[in-house]
Amino acid sequence: METSLNFITVKIDEYFSIKNDIDKMEDKVKDLKKGRDDIQAAIIEHMEANELQQVKDAKGRMVYLTDPAVYASFNKENKAEAMRVIKEVWNMPEIFQETVPPSTLSRVIKDRMVNGDYIPEGLFNVYIEKRIGNRKS
After folding, report:
1. 3-class secondary structure, 71
2. Rounded distance between C-alpha atoms, residue 107 and residue 127, angstroms
3. Most confident range, picked from 28-32, 57-61, 127-131
């Protein structure tokens, strides 16, 4: 019995030690991603301000502006009206049933934005994420 208790005590110590190491590394990765996102935002701001589509450095590494990602959701207070607009005004009843996958709504909103089509205010929450791509030489 004593050996079994010692064994499990050791394994529990090992488990919590590894878990603690993983938690620390996950925090470090989170911090690194935040730093990367901040730098990416600064690069995008500089490229847009200087009307640049791509930039190559002395080491041959290149960054370029990509199409922005569009994320859309229904404004909860106006969901019924938004569904009516999609079905009747935009004439898309086949795409939208009672529930709408977020990716489908986002694609429709992005397509309308790209085409310069009207999107009524207050019916949708839209987030546009600017991004860069990269190539290493």
Report:
1. strand
2. 12
3. 28-32
